[in-house]
Design goal:
Length: 270
């Protein structure tokens, strides 16, 4: 049996509940249909057990999030709308992820490293000054150490924006594969899917996450991929997908993964 069809999906979309995204789910769905996507999924930032920072839903808002996506599914019965969650991987909160996993019939859980220390979300512009206070090498190492632990945790269906640490354009000297080879070995070993995320094109670095050489190293290890926009507004749905699909194809990928009920299924790349 061959693949069902060539289709494009976007599983990384946010909602206003996180406080830094705009547009109701239906506006994202209408945008996705206009872009010709075959299915989409929402994945807002997960709540933490207590008020933790200012860019995620409050702990008591999780039921509201789930109901909001269920309502969107009811409004568009003929269009697949998946229910996901973008979860921060923070060492010592693994039990919380297990707790979240039991709160709904998720189609997928995304793992993300934003926090490289308990008080530093590395993609947050409010901490930009810290980049001048310690070597870039050290910051990158902390990020990829955390990403490796996330892969080894086996808590997630796919792992987001693999080299997010480059967001503001800070990069160590030389061949960067020394930072992510170990991480990619852990990702391959865990059998988890990696995300190509076009949001980097909209940030200071102006580059897809991950870089091309990172993706080449992932492909060599047969690590499956999913291509997402990380939309925080309806106009960002499927943003720069032609560039992302071209990159994936160019590197040698022939399929991307789709998600339903926490099971990954390949479809041919389009
Ligand atoms: Zn966000
Ligand atoms: Fe993220
Ligand atoms: Fe996101
Ligand atoms: Zn994200």
């Amino acid at each position: 049996m061959g693949y069902p069809k060539c289709m494009r999906t976007d599983y990384h979309m946010h909602t206003p509940l996180c406080g830094h995204a705009i547009g109701a789910p239906r506006d994202y769905i209408l945008a996705a249909q206009k872009q010709g996507l075959a299915e989409i999924g929402f994945s807002d930032h997960n709540p933490m057990p207590t008020q933790f920072d200012d860019w995620r839903m409050a702990p008591e808002e999780l039921p509201q999030y789930i109901e909001m996506i269920h309502a969107a599914q009811r409004e568009f019965p003929d269009y697949p709308v998946r229910l996901g969650l973008e979860c921060d991987f923070i060492p010592s909160f693994e039990g919380h992820i297990h707790h979240l996993a039991a709160q709904a019939e998720w189609d997928y859980l995304i793992g993300s490293v934003h926090y490289i220390t308990p008080d530093w979300d590395v993609d947050n512009p409010k901490h930009l000054k810290r980049w001048t206070e310690q070597p870039v090498e050290e910051i990158w190492q902390k990020y990829f150490d955390a990403y490796t632990l996330m892969a080894e945790s086996c808590l997630f269906d796919f792992l987001a924006h693999p080299d997010l640490v480059k967001k503001f354009g800070h990069r160590p000297e030389g061949d960067l594969s020394r930072f992510y080879k170990g991480t990619l070995d852990a990702v391959a070993e865990a059998g988890v899917v990696l995300e190509i995320n076009t949001a980097g094109l909209r940030k200071d670095v102006h580059e897809i996450y991950p870089s091309r050489d990172f993706l080449v190293a992932a492909h060599i290890r047969n690590i499956p991929i999913v291509i997402n926009s990380d939309a925080h507004s309806p106009k960002e749905v499927a943003a720069d997908f032609d560039a992302a699909y071209m990159l994936a194809r160019d590197v040698g990928y022939t399929e991307v993964m789709t998600f339903k009920g926490r099971k990954a299924m390949p479809v041919a790349i389009s």
